[in-house]
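Our example copied in:
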Amino acid sequence: MSNIDNPFSGGYGSESAATTLTFGSNEASAPAGDIIKDTTTAAFSGDVIAESKKQPVLVDFWAPWCGPCKQLTPILEKAVQAAGGRVKLVKMNIDDHPAIAGQLGIQSIPAVIAFSDGKPVDGFMGALPESKVKEFIDKISSPNGGRDEAIKDALAAAAQMVEAADFEQAGQIYSAVLAEVPDHLAALAGLANCLIELGDIPTAQATLDMVPPAGKEDAGVRAAQAKIALALQVAELGDPTALEARLEANPADHQARYDLAMILNAKDQRDEAADHLLAIMKADRNWNEDGARKQLLQFFDAWGAGDPASMSARRKLSSLLFS
């Protein structure tokens, strides 16, 4: 896969702040008098980067002319004080110290960025109400640093990219999840699927080989494994035009129909692929030791139970078997 920037790192200039998959510790509470402070460009490394290796540090980027900043700052201070040292608050006036905000890509204020283990891990833009600020602090100061929530968000983003056929970017996100949780089943299956779509079958199989024994029956893992099996079978098949010609000459050429079904499935023509296998079953249920039905069931595994093609073909299969 190409080296693509992880969308969960850096870049806080958008309406919603990005989230990384790197999280810090929650080891120590700060003394009450040191929980809230102002910082400068020169002091940022010590006040934020170093301190965030002890507990999360919120950085409030503000300016004297910013009305929403004046609304948010007292809310932040109150929530941080109520957190009892689980987090620190560092305030940075971007008029006097613009460099850090520029490096982080901050384009509007107020902007609050949470640092943990020396890295930006989460954030938000705008003047949130007190309840939302408290939720944010609770999330980033939880024992796992908000990792579960970040992974959930990452998987959702990856799914959207898969839907948009952006398999390289989706694969990058799944890889980031696996860097945190190496045996995460959804991420392993998701990455394998992306690799399959990109034509890298060997790496996809190597990814699935990392699935622990207890996860082998996971629906997503099984679907990815079935796709690999189908891809390997299709690679050995012939020219679809020649197969169609054989069928036109002899509709009872079940092997040609079976091979064509495999190729149609590889082209994502699922309904047509299923119909060819059903036609074989209707003509000769015992052909190739019930091979058409067995292959159709493998299609169902690869497509997923909720796929429209699976549901349609299951109805047709039921009618054929029990009518």
In short: Residues 1-32 have pLDDT under 50 and may be disordered. The beta strands are 36-38, 57-62, 88-93, 111-116, 119-125. Residues 147-163 form the longest helix (17 residues).
